[in-house]
Amino acid sequence: MPINIPKNLPAGEVLANENIFIMDEQRAITQDIRPLNILILNLMPEKQRTETQLLRLLSNSPLQVNVEFLHTASYESKNVSKSHLEQFYKNFDQVKDHRYDGMIITGAPVEKLKFEEVFYWNELTEIMEWTKTHVTSVMHICWGAQAALYYHYGIDKFPLNQKRTGVFTHDLLHPDIQLVKGWDDEFQAPHSRHTDVSEEEILSHEDLILLSTSKEAGPFTIQSKDGKHVMVTGHVEYDAATLGDEYHRDRNKGLKPDIPFDYYKDNDPTKKPLNRWRSHAYLMFSNWLNYYVYQQTPYAWK
Fold first, then answer.
1. H helix intervals, 75-185
2. Using an 8 Å Cβ cutoff, are 213 and 173 in contact?
3. Residue 104: inside a domain, yes or no?
């Protein structure tokens, strides 16, 4: 089944060229089925790139998915046009009276700040509190995962000595859990962050399950026992070029970033990187949509 996105969203043309089945709102309303309503709080600076990455993964499902985008009203993004936000995004006041089957909260380039120092933290906590009663399941990515662990479970982040960037090997700890159904026992996934969370605190928390971890990169996928919250500390949504673009961006700024770990062949930044995590990314999103959203959400919200 297709993914339903706003008409004229730039990501639509990109996805159509990849033979991903999409439809706009006008065609979707002619189908007599109940679509899943997914809200995406996009905190990433390159919003259009993140839109494409997430919509690509949400498309790989037999379910019809209706997507809406949310941005913070308390912070004005500097990397996307105001017209793009006005045309394709809503603010919290416009959605707070609605209920959603699923929600995604992305990462954000604010890791070095304490949570309470983030300009939109109060707005974000209001949204996270609202999800308890208005969203069936929430997937949190990278800094969004750390924010969820801190707000919902009291687990704080801590700084790393240097940025953790690259593609790391992970071990699957609970293959019986539905989110990771079909995953390999050992798999690769990208990380890009300056902070981490304690594996010991996650393991000792009575409401959390650590699904996979990496000796080099730390905890990767975590979920609450009730399936309400899924936390992914890496960036499975990244396409093959994203880590490299971040590396060259930082070099152009005069910084001295490490070459992303195990990313370029022969550790040579002139060589084209390969995507070695795509299948697990698609499987994670389809499992989440099926087992945590579709199978759990009411047909008609009361």
1. 82-88, 92-95, 121-134, 143-153
2. yes
3. yes
Separation between Cα atoms, residue 26 and residue 176, nearest integer Å: 40
Mark the binding-site residues for substrate, compressed into ranges. 163, 192, 249
Question: How does the average pLDDT of the chain come out, rounded?
Answer: 91
Is residue 279, in this structure, part of any structural domain at all? yes
Judge whether residue 125 has pLDDT over 90.
Answer: yes
Residue 299 lies in a domain: no
pTM for the model stands at: 0.88
Rounded to whole angstroms, the Cα distance separating 75 from 72 reads: 6
In a domain, 47, yes or no: yes
Strand, helix or coil for residue 126: helix
Please state, in angstroms and rounded to a whole number, the distance separating the CA atoms of residues 33 and 175. Answer: 32
Q: What is the CATH number of the domain that holds 86?
A: 3.40.50.880
pLDDT value of residue 1: 45
Specify the residue for token string 């971040």: 246
In terms of residue numbers, what domain contains 256?
Answer: 3-294
Statement: residue 302 has pLDDT above 80: no
Residues pairing with 167 in the sheet: 190
Residue 18, pLDDT score: 64
- So which residues are the catalytic ones? 142, 235, 237
